[in-house]
Write a structure and sequence with these properties.
Blueprint (H helix, E strand, L loop, with lengths): L2 E3 L4 H4 L2 E3 L5 E3 H4 L8 H9 L9 E5 L5 H7 L8 E5 L2 H9 L10 E4 L4 H7 L2 H6 L3 E5 L1 H5 L5 H23 L2 H9 L19 E5 L5 H10 L5 E5 L3 H6 L6 E4 L4 H7 L10 E5 L4 H4 L6 E4 L21 H11 L4 E5 L17 H5 L9 E3 L5 E3 L2 H19 L3 E4 L11 E2 L14 H9 L5 H36 L9 H16 L2 H10 L1 H5 L12 H40 L5 H11 L4 H8 L7 H19 L4 H8 L3 H13 L3 H10 L6 H18 L3 H14 L4 H14 L3 H14 L4 H11 L2 H14 L4 H13 L3 H14 L4 H24 L1
Helix pairs in contact: 19-20, 19-23, 20-21, 23-24, 24-26, 28-30, 29-30, 30-31, 31-32, 32-33, 33-34, 34-35, 35-36, 36-37, 36-38, 37-38
């Protein structure tokens, strides 16, 4: 049986309850979550062992009224682990006021977002990101979000963590970047520097994926013959639909998600040049059939193959394309689709993109930026950071004589970039022959055969070096393991001297490759210097420290060797592609291994049909089919991710949040966005709800009631939200009938509304119904003092003195000093005394 007491947050958080397990929680934060099972059982089921990993920082939205915090404190906390709980300001204040956060372990903190910067600094979040040990969770109250405050908080923290994770990955030169660089050695043949200065003084249009791209594409098509066009790879689908082939297309991201959103670029022909970072996702580069230019270094170690080159500039592909445009010699750069903010109705990208197909984004925070038109538009934390980095870059390029303009009035205003309408652009009168310029610059540089020989030499040299490092490290690991006695003290100093010699060899004879091994396995090395160490070193741990160091060396070397061996195989396969009579079995095996099914089209273009053995034609057909399946698959991981941001749960939370803060324009924009939602039949109740909200804010109660009745007539979806608003309007209009009807329905949906229903019955004169309703509520929450006081008052007013006395006795037994109950008891005593006097006078 759950017991409740009413507090200052009565209307929002609901009563403070105590379940059968003695656990206190706010009813409206968790509702029935802890009715039948204890917090321990629920948290064990939800989190398992996830919260008890050593050396991790757990960022948790919500505390489930402090129950999650106490659940953790009741167990031995793992060494080196910290817990950062985040609550809405008002919830945090209520939890503090009711002692639900007392006795917090120093390894935990519960904060509001105003203390975020201080808390993540104190808990060394960057160090935890370095060892890939930041975890984020939503408590049960944040998942349910009955108070409509946790959703935006969770969205905001997720964005902040994502941004911090990206920043630390770049700082470290993460494994993924190095792995992709080694993977791409076979295909990073021509450096982008070959085109440095090739377009001196000319104008280029840079197309990106923002919503304003839609209005720019018709203009680009009209003036295509007078434009040099750069495009980011994610808009390839839209360009193909518009029958626009860019001169240059850019990609920098090493993740598979980048392939998901960019794969349509593989359908461009030789008119387009691919410019990519050395660590771009391999499945884009190794299936590209045209000319490709790489940025940065070919190899992650010192090598003659690392010729002078242009660099990839972050954090976004737009930054890279902008920098390349300047280095290619362009002195006017026209930006289109570089919005860095969203449309007012929640669309984040241009039509045809996965994001647009998924529908408007509903998990937007309140973050906004000024646009070129002077208005405000919603944006995200990563876009806000991109605006800052783009402004720094634009100011630098502008100072160097480059004119950068953005043709969208709805794009974010960025320092160093001026707004200029498309109609005002002064275009060159003559066409630029891009193909001729490119070919003249690249003449004599395409020496594939010679490059592959050099690449193999370098890769085999690296393999020899890293094998040597692996052997030295294995010897060091064995020596270190035997060097300490049972007390953790070095027992044989000759062993120490052997280790010192190995260290010198690693630093002198293998210094370049040794640094690479460390860089590649940097997260494992950083784990040696943990953010926090809550226990003193034991003798065994001191001994193990050296082992961990050499294990990190060994593991890094082993992974590097795997990548280098695979890269050697890949280069050998590319050499086969240059042979007069290639071994197609080698080519097919490599294509399957790399999932580069599209290379089959390159082979068919390069080799006469009679060179391809008939026995292998079936396998080539299978590769081509696999390529087409991948290319045309729309249900990608990225699309699933995009649909998650357009979920109707997010819509409910966002609409409620905007209504609470009386954001009329944003609510109207949100309603407009639903007209473009891919599931119109499912959003009808939400359209009605938002229509009702807008009507209420306009004080048009009749229109609001009409909208809410549509929801009630429609069934279960959003029923509680609609009924609650009907009650508010009915009470405000003194419409007892509708208030009574709506509250009766609400009290069946949610027991929180039973005291409200009882009260309106009392006002309506239905005293017995009011008493029965109060009693039903108190049976569910036997210690809700506010409801008990109201019932005692009702008994008293109706002359049911024995029942009033029983209720007051119960209240004062639990809360002896409750002034309202004491005052009511005195009133009851006076009534009885007056009644006794009256009876005596009659006698």
């Amino acid at each position: 049986m759950t017991q409740c007491e009413q507090g200052s947050e009565e209307q929002r958080l609901g009563p403070l309850c105590v379940n059968d397990f003695g656990e206190r929680y706010y009813y409206n934060l968790n509702r029935h979550g802890f009715d039948k099972v204890s917090a321990e059982v629920l948290f064990d089921t939800k989190f398992g062992k996830a919260l008890f990993e050593e050396d991790a920082l757990n960022v948790i939205i919500g505390t489930d009224s402090g129950l999650l915090l106490r659940y953790l404190q009741a167990r031995p906390l793992p060494n080196g682990t910290r817990y950062l709980f985040i609550e809405p300001e008002s919830v945090l204040a209520a939890l503090d006021a009711n002692g639900l956060l007392t006795g917090m372990d120093e390894r935990m903190a519960c904060i509001a977002m105003s203390d975020w910067a201080d808390a993540i600094g104190r808990f060394k979040i960057t160090d935890y990101f370095y060892i890939d040990a930041v975890r984020s969770y939503n408590a049960i109250c944040a998942q349910d979000d009955y108070i409509e405050e946790y959703a935006e908080l969770s969205w905001h923290v997720t964005e902040l963590l994502s941004q911090l994770h990206w920043q630390t990955s770049v700082e470290l030169g993460a494994e993924a970047f190095i792995a992709r660089q080694i993977h791409n050695i076979a295909d990073n043949k021509l450096p982008a520097k070959l085109l440095a200065g090739a377009f001196a003084g000319k104008t280029v249009v840079l197309l990106a994926g923002g919503p304003s791209l839609d209005s720019a594409l018709p203009w680009v098509r009209t003036h295509r013959d007078r434009l040099v066009v750069f495009a980011v790879s994610r808009i390839a689908r839209q360009l193909l639909q518009a029958d626009l082939y860019p001169d240059f297309i850019f990609s920098v991201d090493p993740t598979e998600l980048s392939f998901d959103i960019s794969k349509e670029m593989l359908e461009f022909d030789e008119r387009t040049v691919f410019v990519c970072s050395h660590h771009t996702v391999p499945t884009l580069l190794n299936q590209w059939r045209g000319l490709a230019l790489y940025l940065g270094d070919r190899l992650p170690w010192t090598s003659d193959l690392n010729c002078p080159n242009l660099e990839s500039v972050g954090p976004t592909v737009t930054n890279t394309a902008l920098q390349v445009a300047y280095r290619f010699g362009f002195r006017r750069i026209v930006l289109a689709g570089v919005d860095l903010c969203f449309t007012r109705d929640g669309f984040t990208h241009a039509k045809g993109s996965n994001e647009a197909l998924a529908g408007p984004r509903f998990n937007l925070t309140s973050l906004q930026v000024q646009t070129n038109a002077g208005g405000m538009a919603p944006t995200s934390c990563d876009f806000a950071q991109a605006i800052h980095s783009l402004a720094l870059q634009a100011r630098h390029l502008s100072a160097a004589g480059c004119d950068i303009v953005n043709v969208s009035e709805h794009a974010a205003k960025v320092d160093g970039i001026r707004y200029l309408a498309l109609a005002e652009l002064d275009l060159p009168q003559t066409a630029v022959d891009v193909a001729d310029i490119v070919q003249s610059r690249l003449a004599g540089s395409d020496e594939e055969a010679a490059y592959y020989v050099k690449a193999l030499t370098d890769l085999r040299r690296a393999r020899f070096q890293i094998r040597s490092i692996a052997k030295l490290v294995e010897d060091a690991r064995r020596i270190n393991d035997a060097m300490y006695n049972e007390h953790g003290v070095i027992g044989e100093y000759k062993d120490k001297q052997k280790l010192d010699k190995i260290e010198k060899k690693l630093k002198r004879e293998h210094r370049h490759y040794s640094r690479l091994v460390k860089k590649f396995g940097i997260r494992r090395f950083i784990k040696l210097a943990k953010p926090f160490n809550d226990q003193d070193w034991t003798a065994e741990e001191a001994k193990q420290l050296g082992n961990v160091f050499y294990d990190a060396y060994r593991d890094g070397a082993a992974k590097l060797l795997q990548l280098i061996e695979a890269s050697i195989d890949r280069v050998l396969a590319r050499q086969q592609e240059l042979a007069l009579h290639p071994d197609f079995s080698v080519l097919i095996a490599q294509a399957r291994k790399d999932r580069s099914f599209g290379r089959v089209r390159l082979w068919r273009r390069r080799f006469a049909a009679e060179l391809i053995p008939a026995a292998l034609q079936h396998e080539l057909a299978e590769l081509d089919s696999a390529y087409l399946r991948v290319l045309h698959d729309r249900e990608t991981r990225h699309f699933v991710q995009a649909k998650g941001q357009s979920s109707l749960q997010n819509l409910r939370q966002r609409s409620g949040m905007l209504f609470k803060h009386q954001k009329v324009e944003e609510l109207a924009d949100l309603r407009n966005s639903l007209r473009k939602h891919p599931e119109p039949e499912n959003v009808a109740p939400y359209q009605a709800l938002i229509t009702g909200y807008l009507a209420e804010l306009a004080r048009d109660h009749d229109a609001a009631l009409d909208a809410y009745r549509q929801i009630v007539d429609g069934g279960d979806s959003l029923l509680e939200e609609a009924l609650a608003r009907i009650v508010v309007i009915a009470v405000e209009r003194d419409d007892v009938y509708y208030a009574n009807l709506a509250l009766e329905c609400l009290s069946r949906l949610n027991p929180l509304y039973q005291p409200w229903y009882a009260e309106i019955q009392r006002l309506h004169g239905d005293i017995l119904v009011a008493i029965d309703t109060y009693n039903a509520y108190i049976r569910r929450f036997p210690d809700d003092s506010a409801a008990q006081l109201k019932l005692a008052r009702l008994y008293l007013d109706q002359g049911i003195y024995e029942a009033a006395e029983l209720m007051l006795d119960h209240l004062l037994t639990n809360k002896p000093g409750l002034e309202a109950a004491l005052a009511m008891r005195l009133q009851l005593a006076k009534i009885r005394a007056d009644s006794a006097v009256g009876s005596a006078d009659v006698g």
